[in-house]
Amino acid sequence: MTDSYRIRPADIWVQAREDYLSGLSAETVCRRHDLGLSAFRRRARKYGWRRSDQVEPPPGEADLSLYADLTMEDQIDTARLRFLEALEIGKATEARRWRSLWLELCDARHALDMDIFDGMSPAAITAALTADAEADETGDEVQRLGPPPTTPRLSDSGAAEMCTKVHSKILPTPDPA
User: Fold this and answer.
1) In whole angstroms, what is the distance from residue 50 CA to residue 44 CA?
2) Dmax over Cα atoms in the chain, in whole Å?
3) DSSP state of 107
4) Are 57 and 63 contacting, i.e. CB atoms less than 8 angstroms apart?
5) DSSP secondary-structure letter at 68?
6) Which of 48, 103, 117, 142 has the least C-beta neighbours within 10 A?
7) What CA–CA distance (Å, rounded) separates 145 from 138?
8) What pLDDT, in 10s, does the model give residues 70-122?
């Protein structure tokens, strides 16, 4: 929040309404659009922005096709980012839940890799996956498509070390007695 009193254009309020009705919390919407929380709640009440009034499909008929392209890596990255965001804004309970989900997804990925690459070390698995990805693309495809986007991986970004630091701060270390 920059000023004590500010008037936002209607476009900002329309986007804020859409974000709120799509599932974001009021606090997140206000932070994203630089709105006052009380002004947002007042406008939501005035214009009836209630999630309970939204039409939801009956149980069992939900369209899950929008999740078809969501990979395990995307899920892990999202959980990690939500964990870090919750830590940053000081929501310890929410951070703990996201951390738990993040670690559970990492364990699931590791178990899947161990099932697929039975008997191989983690370094050998990484080497095999890297070699396979490089073999899939020819030189012409690489030039046309450009460099692949760089996404932080758990092993590349130092997230494992960060996870260890977080573990040591949240969970007490057992006495070696």
Assistant:
1) 7
2) 64
3) H
4) yes
5) T
6) 48
7) 11
8) 888 888 998 999 999 998 889 899 999 999 999 999 999 888 878 888 888 87
Give dist(CA 56, CA 158) in Å, integer. 41
Burial of 92 (0-12, 13-18, 19+ CB in 10 A): exposed
Give the type of residue at 15: Q
60 close to 47: Cβ distance less than 8 angstroms: no
Q: Which two tokens stand for residue 60?
A: 């069992």
CB 40 within 8 A of CB 30: yes
Query: Where in the chain are the domains?
Result: 10-50, 70-141
Q: Give percent helix, percent strand, percent coil of the chain, each to the nearest 5.
A: 65, 0, 35
- Amino acid (one-letter) located at 167: H
Q: Does residue 78 contact residue 105 with C-beta atoms inside 8 Å? A: no
CA 103 to chain centre: 13
Q: Are 40 and 64 in contact (CB under 8 A)?
A: no
Q: What is the pLDDT of residues 7-55, one digit of tens each?
A: 888 899 999 998 888 888 899 999 999 999 999 999 988 888 887 776 7
